[in-house]
Amino acid sequence: MIERISEAEQAVMEVLWRDSPLGATEVAERVDSSRGWSDRTVKTLLSRLLAKGVIAHQEEGRRYLYRPVIKREDYVAQESGKLIDRMFGGRVTPLVAHLAERDLLTPRDIEEIEALLRELKS
Amino acid sequence: MIERISEAEQAVMEVLWRDSPLGATEVAERVDSSRGWSDRTVKTLLSRLLAKGVIAHQEEGRRYLYRPVIKREDYVAQESGKLIDRMFGGRVTPLVAHLAERDLLTPRDIEEIEALLRELKS
DNA sequence: TCATCTAGACTACGGATGTAGTCGGAGGGC
DNA sequence: GCCCTCCGACTACATCCGTAGTCTAGATGA
Are B12 and B42 in contact (CB under 8 A)? Predict the structure, then answer.
């Protein structure tokens, strides 16, 4: 089980998943600027992620380069699973039914998903 | 936007969504017993939910009866939406694709979803 | 009427989270 | 060699969350 990653921490992970390894300052520069974080904040988040073991660092001269230890897909899978458990009793169909009912599925989505399922069966 | 409901708080909401209005003690009795909560804990959670405005209470003699103010579907929709935004950039197809890739879809799921989509199109 | 039992209100407290500030050491310019 | 700068390490602090404990006033039974 991957340790829980908070909202803020995930914003930092997204940067490293996109491109790594990176130094702390580089990460801070690339984090979604709409957050308005100081670079101290980003460094704190990097430390916490390190403590959680979801990223690792290696020395490069007098600074560290950070890189993810866990894969984004694995994290996404875990979080999706948790939502499906919590909200839909672990069944996927009710999730899709729910999305459909709430009109969260566009006709294009429906086409795409059908194509996807056809492929799965072949 | 519905106020954030924590994990523990949701366990209490589930009770009220299933049946309401209920007194605090009744809620405590019905909460998933595997949590092993004291009734104090449940009362605290009820107060917090009240403060968040997601439940309401009415007096009944010398106690309160609690009932949800928000609908479960709305809450589920919000949480699903947040996951889809955070993990899949707001697109639903990647979610389904992801579930498929991770073998989280059983053949039965696939059949059911296909049937659902056929219905949606008609 | 007096002790007792409840129910809700208020208080507690450690860990997680969001958001930084400060300190001390290694490099670099002069 | 000396001071400044940049980096990571450590510290801070309010708020939320999980999980209760205590206090107080009204209902109850003897």
Answer: yes
Q: Inspect the interface and report whether the beta carbons of B113 and A112 lie closer than 8 Å.
A: no
The whole-model pTM stands at 0.89
Look at residue B14 in the predicted model and tell me its pLDDT.
Answer: 97
Of the candidates A97, A9, A105, A87, the one whose C-alpha atom is nearest the C-alpha of residue A48 is: A9
Spatial CA neighbour of B43 closest among B19, B34, B55: B55
For B24-80, write each residue's pLDDT tens digit.
999 999 999 999 999 999 999 999 999 999 999 999 988 999 999 999 999 999 999
Asked if B50 CB < 7 A from strand D, the reply is no
Residue B86, token pair as written in the block: 């955070």
C-alpha–C-alpha distance, residues A117 and B89, integer Å: 21
With contact defined as beta carbons under 8 Å apart, do B55 and B13 qualify? yes
- Scored b (16 or more CB within 10 A) or e, B85-94 reads eebbeeebbb
